[in-house]
Amino acid sequence: MTTAFYLEHYLDSLEHLPTELRRNFNLMRDLDTRAQLLMKDIDKLADEYLKNMKKEATEQKNEKLTRIQNLFNKAKEYGDDKVQLAIQTYELVDKHIRRLDSDLMRFEAEIQDKAISSNRAQEESGATKKGRKKLKEKEKRKKGTASSEDEAKGARKKQKKGSSIVSAAVAGAAGSGSQGESSTLSHPADVLDMPVDPNEPTYCVCNQVSYGEMIGCDNPDCGIEWFHFACVGLTTKPKGKWFCPKCTQDRKKK
Questions:
Q1: Is the Cβ–Cβ distance between 217 and 242 less than 8 Å?
Q2: Do the annotations mark residue 96 as ligand-binding?
Q3: How many CA atoms, within 13 angstroms, populate the side-chain half-sphere of residue 14?
């Protein structure tokens, strides 16, 4: 797999990332604007309540307090939605970072494998050339020391033997070279996936990292705080306050 393929494949996966990030940031800005407007209304109602506290009847006071409390609950919902969008945005970017790291590791492994294969081929080629030179030098020395008649006969025999030896040596070298090449080519590159960060915090009853849609328990003393929708049987965010199964049982016992 070439560098261009890795790059092209990764850029294709990033095609929709800017649009998704822009959408999430626009939603968070809109939620923040709504929350600020609610806080201004709460401040006005609180000032009016304090000014007319002694003049108004109890029913009117209770009505204003209820209205202020409802506005606070609405502002809290906006804040929870902002947190969920921030978590989704983080996970979206983190997914692409992990994929890039994984592709880099695969590419480096392929480069190392090709370098090892090239070095082995060069070593085998050098060993074959040295073997041929030694055989030729040995034949020349034997021809120089033989007699005239014996030299012709011995030369023919030695030449035949030498040619057979050379052929065997070349065939053996070629065979070992082809075997080494096939074993190198058949050696696969190790493919490593990006491990999950062990320092990343975990949530929910499943004790897993944050993903997808999550909801926070409204009990300030809850030991877990955040839960995945699927783990607590939710498909949409409920209205008003929500308590996790454990906190719900504790409240019933009280």
A1: yes
A2: no
A3: 13
Does 228 carry a binding-site annotation? yes
pLDDT(248) > 50:
yes
Which of 59-68, 166-175, 187-196 shows the highest mean pLDDT?
A: 59-68
What is the Rg, in whole angstroms, of the alpha carbon atoms belonging to the chain? 39
Q: Whose CA is closest to 238, among 211, 216, 222?
A: 216
- Flag whether 187 is marked binding: no
**Locus of tokens 């053996």:** 172
Q: Which CATH superfamily is domain 200-253 in?
A: Zinc/RING finger domain, C3HC4 (zinc finger) (3.30.40.10)
Consult the annotation and say whether 247 binds a ligand: yes
Assess whether pLDDT exceeds 80 at residue 176: no
Chain-centre distance of CA 106, in angstroms?
12
- What mean pLDDT do residues 55-64 have? 83
